Amino acid sequence: xxxxxxxxxxxxxNNFTYDAILRTCAHPSSLDKQTLRRALILGVRTMSxxxxxxxxxxxxxxxxxxxxxxxxxxxxKEKEKLFLQSFSDCCKQGLLDEKTxxxxxxxxxxxxxxxxxxxxxxxxxxxxxxxxSWKCNIGTKSVASASSSRFSERIVDNTGRRKxxxx
Length: 167
Fold this sequence. Notes:
This protein is mainly alpha-helical and 167 residues long. The chain has one domain. It has helices spanning 15-26, 33-52, 60-73, 76-92, 98-107, 110-117; strands at residues 4-6, 9-11, 152-156, 162-166.
């Protein structure tokens, strides 16, 4: 997903674009094995491009979506490998939020959780016990690279409708 040019207009994907693709991959319209496999591949490629982007970077919400893709569409050693790498990336970026933490505890098998959190006692693991460095960038306005000078945030106006505000 690189910028596409149409004359003088250059269209670049933003966080909402990548998140929409990940959300779609997490909820494929068919349970056909080939469709599920394609959705997993698309989800992995999307997250990879997202992480490599010079203009936008994944958020805690993006990682939550990606973990849903992995939980629903990958299995066995492949699932473990993908989870260990992406969970490590999420934590290195300080983007593990409480919602993602709870979702992982609820939807990921116990043996994989033990590996992710390097803990034998997953049942009593709480978000407050997670190292601060794993969650130090949640709630920040933008975690995009330095070359990205603007970002969007969702706001709710006085009518209750969501709007996107550019900064």
